[in-house]
Amino acid sequence: MPGTGEIPDMLSHAPLLKVHFNKLVIVLGVLCVVGCATVASKDPISLQNAIDLKVESLSLLDKAIDPPDAHTKEIHDLRLKLLKVLEYEKTRGELNAVSIQQWEILIDPNGYLLGGFLTKWEIDGIGRNPAFLNGVKKSIIQAFDQIIKVESAKPQRGVL
Questions:
Q1: Are residues 96 and 40 in contact, defined by beta-carbon separation less than 8 angstroms?
Q2: Domain range for 136
Q3: Which of the listed residues 8, 43, 95, 139 has the most CB atoms within 10 Å of its CB?
Q4: CA nearest 71: which of 114, 121, 140, 133?
Q5: First-to-last CA distance in the chain?
Q6: What is the predicted pLDDT for the residue at 7?
Q7: Could you give the angle at the alpha carbon of 69 between the alpha carbons of 82 and 144, nearest 5°?
Q8: Do residues 57 and 80 touch, judged by C-beta distance below 8 A?
Q9: Which of 69, 64, 70 is nearest to 117 (CA)?
C-alpha cells in the first residue's frame, strides 16, 4: 500500500484483469463492427435490378412520343417491376434506408421523375415532344445513375 512500504500484490489480480480486458476487447470489437455498419452491404441483385430498370425505363421513354394508350401494358409492367424492386430493397433492412428513399423518389406517381412522368403521360393521353423527352430522360438517367452509384459504393459483405 502506498505510504506503508508494502508492494501491492498486482499479480493476485492478474486473472481478474485478464477477464475484464478480454471483455473490453470483445465489446470494442462489437462496437467497431456495429459502428462501421451504417449502410447495407453491396447486393448484386439490387445493382442488376437498377441497371435493368434503367434500360427498360429509357426504352419506354423513347416510345413516349406516342399516346400512352399504345403502351398501356408496358407502362403497367414497368410500374409493377419498380414496385417489386422497392419491396425488395425494403427487405434489406434499416441500413438500406438511403436506397429505399432513392427508389421511392424515383417512382413516386406524384413526383417529378419516372413515376410522375408516367402518371402525367397517362392523364394527358398524348405523345410528348422529343425535345421534352430528352430533358426528362436526362433527369431519370441521373436518378438511376445515383441509385447505381450508391449501391456500387456499398461495402462487400463481411468486409469492413
A1: yes
A2: 44-153
A3: 43
A4: 121
A5: 46
A6: 47
A7: 25
A8: no
A9: 64
pLDDT of amino acid 118:
98
pTM of the full predicted structure? 0.75
C-alpha 33/C-alpha 41 separation (Å) is: 13
Q: What pLDDT does residue 137 have?
A: 98
Quick one: 24 exposed, middle or buried, by C-beta within 10 A (0-12, 13-18, 19+)?
A: exposed
Query: Is 3 part of a structural domain of the chain?
Result: no
Residue 112 in domain: yes
Mean pLDDT for 14-37 is 44
Burial 41-52 (b: 16+ CB within 10 A, else e): eebeebbebbee
Residues in the chain: 160
Range with the poorest average pLDDT among 35-44, 46-55, 106-115:
35-44
Residue 63 lies in a domain: yes
